[in-house]
Amino acid sequence: MKASIRVLLIGAAGRMGQAISRAAEAQKELAISARCDLGDSIEEAIGNCDVVIDFSHADATEQNCATCLTSGKPLVIGTTGQSAEQLRTIEKTAKSIPVLLAANFSVGVNTLFWLTRKAAEMLGDGFDLEVIETHHRLKKDAPSGTAKRLAQILAEVRGLDEKNFAHGREGLIGERPQNEIGIHSLRAGDVVGDHTVIFATPGERLELTHKASSRETFAVGALRAAKWIVGKPARLYDMEDVLGL
Ligand code: NAD
Known about the structure:
Oligomer: single chain
Radius of gyration: 19 Å
Shape: elongated
Strand order of the largest sheet: 2-1-3-4-5-11
Number of helices: 8
Order of helices and strands: EHEHEHEHEHEHEEEEHEH
Helix content: 25-40%
Number of strands: 11
Bound molecules: nicotinamide-adenine-dinucleotide
Structural class: alpha/beta
């Protein structure tokens, strides 16, 4: 049977690109119809697809958004590390075509997002908030997109913003301000992706941890998102929309 949904994969030669190609081989209703990496023309490849999946580099964001906009093709973005300006481009593009931006495509991490919000709501202002992430030595951006999203959720619940984020600590830093959200990035070996959110107050500590042991979980989630977004109206979606969380 011929696959009905054709995917253009950007960043196809990378770790995630290869994982997505492998995962797509097991799918009947979807196939990777074109692959692009650094130096390839996306404009030439895009005609022959129904949806675009991007796991490349934040520097590709503007070009990818412009090409999808011109051709009217939905865009699933797994790439992390975008600047504020690149994120604005994504938001603007999503006013005209469906765009899904997810810092993490695993079901477990999206459940962690949900649990983090609930825990922050239940525990209130008296708990110190810290986010710790560990990734493999080749990861290019820090903190991870997932850690940023976790910190953003904590900030939303506590009425805080990025000014309250402490990216690591060094020196004579003084006492911990109550409204600080600590974010710490470890880089070591071949770790696929670990994230822990700590809620601590004198006398007790709650830790929520997710550990990814294979990129397949992200790849399968990205393909699920690609199938889901075809035919959807223009809007900026995230993985929680796909999972109905
Ligand atoms: P990688 O370095 O192994 O692969 C990236 C690939 O993109 C490389 O082959 C590179 O040549 C290519 N590339 C770079 N610039 C490009 C451009 N302008 N146009 C086309 N291709 C380009 O990295 P990776 O581990 O596969 O991760 C890729 C991205 O996905 C990173 O931003 C990473 O943080 C993110 N990521 C997201 C999730 C998620 O669930 N959302 C999971 C894992 C990784």
